[in-house]
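Example record used in the benchmark description.
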Amino acid sequence: MPDDRRRITLPRRLLEGLYFSSGVLAALFLALLAISIIAQIIGRLAGVAVDATEFSGFCMAASSFLGLGYTLRLGGHVRVGMLVETLSEPYRTRLEALVCAFSALLVGWLAWCALKLVLESWEFGDLSPGLLAMPFWIPQSAMALGLGILAVALCDELVSLLRGRSARYIDRGDGAL
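Model output (structure tokens):
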């Protein structure tokens, strides 16, 4: 029996580590965004032009996309549960599973398209047009990775629902995430 528990908990630990790591990366890019804005403010006060607009935009996009899976696991996404909350438990679970399946397919397709975009940018050597002239595949990679992690998180929730457990992203009203 202990061997079975280890096999079951190892994938769970890996998934939770993936979600947590993406949340940490999102926080890191948010901190870099704040640093770039502070640098612009200090530069302006010192009479030096610091153009970090493009870098700030890349940090904002990376933070937004990398935080999606982590935020889903914490129940932080906005949900409109008016229809779901009126259903009895078996129908509610079925609807939640259907929504998770559809969302996982849609986000998976978006992740695939984003990955193709990254590969095309790499192949053609696309550079951003600003002063930074960063290869576009770098910020696009964060978008593709974030969408991929969100697709994994949605599949994880779908499996949980199909196994008869409640979804972890549902706010239970107890204040705990």
